[in-house]
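Hey L., structure's done. Input below.
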Amino acid sequence: MSAVFGSHPRVTLKRVLKVCGLLAAVLVVLGLVALTLGAASISTREVAAALWESLTGSPNTLSPEHRLILLEIRLPRILLAMIVGAALAVAGAGYQALLRNPLADPYVLGMSSGAALGAILSLALASQFVVATPVAASVGALLTIAAVYSLGRSGGELSPYTLLLAGIMTAYFLTAIMRFLLNFLSGRDLRGATFWLMGDLSNPAPLPLGWLALAVLVAVGVIYAVAGNLNLLLGGEPEAEALGVDVRRTKLAVYLAASFATGLAVSVSGAIGFVGLLVPHLVRLLFGTDYRLLVPATALGGAIALVAADTLARTVVAPTELPVGAVTALLGAPLFIYLLRRPRLGPPVPAQASPPEKATEDKGK
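Output:
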C-alpha cells in the first residue's frame, strides 16, 4: 500500500505530537469560527466572552438569546460533529487496514443500513423520533455487526473478502426492507426519517456528550493499540504472522472497535457518508501510511471535516438547514473521483498477481 500512497518521513513521537498539535489547532479555530456562523450573527468577541464566562463562572454579559444559541444549540452540535467525525474517520481507517483496501468504508459492511433500519422501525412502531430512534439505531447496528461477522467467517477464520461480500449483501437486504417500511410512514415521520437517513446533527444525542466521547475514545484506543500490527498487516498476512503478529486477534479487535465506533456515530447522527472513506485517504497523502500517526491524525481530520460540513449545512441556505450527509456527498464525491483518477491512487494491484510473462511461462510448464 505504501507504493500506492507514496513515501513519507519516518514516524517518531515528536512528529506525531507535531502533526496532531497542528490538526488540533485547526480544529479549535474552525470550531470558534463555526460558533459565530448561523442564522443569527454573533461576533467573535461575544463567542469568546460566552466561553470565558462558562469556564470561569463570571457574571453573564451576553443577552439570554445569544447565550442560549451559543451554549445550548451551537456548541453541543459542534462537539457532536467532532465526536461523530472522529468515529467515522477512524472506523474507515480501521476497515481499510482490515480489508487491505484503501477504498473500503465503514458503510460498506452494512452497519449504516442496520442502524437505519432500526431507526425506521422505531418510527413505524413508536413514532417517537427524538428518543426511540437513536436507541433503535444502536440496537440495529449491533445486530448487524453480529450477523456480518458470523457470515464473514470462512473455515473458522475471518476472511476479508468473505466479510466484504457479506457486508455488501447484508446492506442490500436491509436497504430493501427499509424501502418497504418507508411506505408505512407519512407526514412528519416520513420527513424526519428521510432527513435522518441523509445525516442530521440537529437532534440532541441520547447520551451525554462526555460519555459519547469516552465511548468513541475507547474504540479509537483499541485500534491505536494494534497500530504496529496494522503496519505489518499491510505487507500481507503471511508476512505479518512470520513476524509474530496474532493476525486473527488483531483483525477481530479492529473489526469490533471500528464497528462499535460506526454504530455509535450512526445512532446519533444518521447516515453520513464519505467521511470514513476520504479522510483516511487524505491523511495518508499528507502524512503517510504508518498507523501510529494515521489513527490520531485521522480522528482529528474526521472531526475537522464534519465540523466544516455541518457548518456549511446550516449556513448555506440559512435559516433553512441542509442534511449534513448531503453536504458530505456533494463535496466528497467529486473529491473522491479526483483522487481515484490520480495514477498513484488507482485501485491497488493484488499482492499475488503475477506478471503476464511469468503467468504465460507457468502455463506452458
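The chain is about 75% helix and 0% strand. The radius of gyration is 22 Å.

-- N.
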